[in-house]
């Protein structure tokens, strides 16, 4: 048991779950930690190379079955997300968008031909996917999307724009959501289709070790079989978001844990006024409060994972997890920064990088306010969205 496992949760995991966690942790230690500070500072990341390495371990679409996917449990997938985000939120975003958004959309709503075309290559990391829902003027309100798809004979013509799309500049396929005369529909759009352009978004202060872009769709002509046949209505993309939000419930705790481990090591080795920082009551109070919130978040994530594996996880329960765990992870990162003092803003330590990343995690896949309203609707039976 580590010092941060206050409630001895490790025995609650199966041997397979612990093994998957440990393998991903070792990958992060070997492949990510030596380089991630430089990737973040330089605003670049070898995403395709990393995707192939993740694919070799079965991390891409790992909770899906068939088509080269690992078919792992929801808890195992969550543990993998926690270890990836302990390295950097951008790495977990790469895996989440690939597996829980793009691959899941095709796996759940695509035709057999679409699944065979894309999923095996995406599972190995040879093909990269992205998920085009957010628009420049429509983030939390996807029902107001302006991207349109109209029929032209047997084809579809897509026009519009998508914004803040992880993986877009390097993607081979985009799952694009558009409004049609029959309602919202999803399309598997090869990124080399004429009329599709992707522009990388630069000057980010968060998720700098992640590739983010804008997609422009200029009267893109697609064959009829590009439509995901079972993606009917807004519930389809929202179900994909629920999948991705579940990974965030776990992943955000990885960033928090890495900050807390850093602060604990710093406080026990840094001497001020003749004794270690960890020997002062105020420092111990900070560490204790953060450790309690971390383990509470881990209990919540584990409970949601067991519900998912039992087929009983509901969207509003995922909202509870995302709302609580990201909010507390960000608070932990900020508090850890105070323990490190001025060193907390240095790139030599991961704390400020995690804090900056968690500002994005707080917003994407549903802001805290959106999740508060989801929980509020569950409590009251009344929608406050409009």
Automatic annotation (TrEMBL):
User: What gene does this protein come from?
Assistant: GCDH
Residue ranges constituting the Acyl-CoA dehydrogenase/oxidase N-terminal domain according to the UniProt record: 14-126
Q: Domain named Acyl-CoA dehydrogenase/oxidase C-terminal: which ranges?
A: 233-379
The record's annotation in Gene3D superfamilies points to: Acyl-CoA dehydrogenase/oxidase, N-terminal domain, Butyryl-CoA Dehydrogenase, subunit A, domain 2, Butyryl-CoA Dehydrogenase, subunit A, domain 3
Annotated organism of origin? Micromonospora lupini str. Lupac 08
Necessary cofactors: FAD
Any one GO biological process: fatty acid beta-oxidation using acyl-CoA dehydrogenase
Enzyme Commission designation: 1.3.99.7
Q: Which residues form the Acyl-CoA oxidase/dehydrogenase middle domain?
A: 130-220
Q: What is this protein called?
A: Glutaryl-CoA dehydrogenase
InterPro entries named among the record's database cross-references: Acyl-CoA_Oxase/DH_mid-dom (IPR006091), Acyl-CoA_Oxase/DH_mid-dom_sf (IPR046373), AcylCo_DH-like_C (IPR036250), AcylCo_DH/oxidase_C (IPR009075), AcylCoA_DH/ox_N (IPR013786), AcylCoA_DH/ox_N_sf (IPR037069), AcylCoA_DH/oxidase_NM_dom_sf (IPR009100), Glutaryl-CoA_DH_mitochondrial (IPR052033)
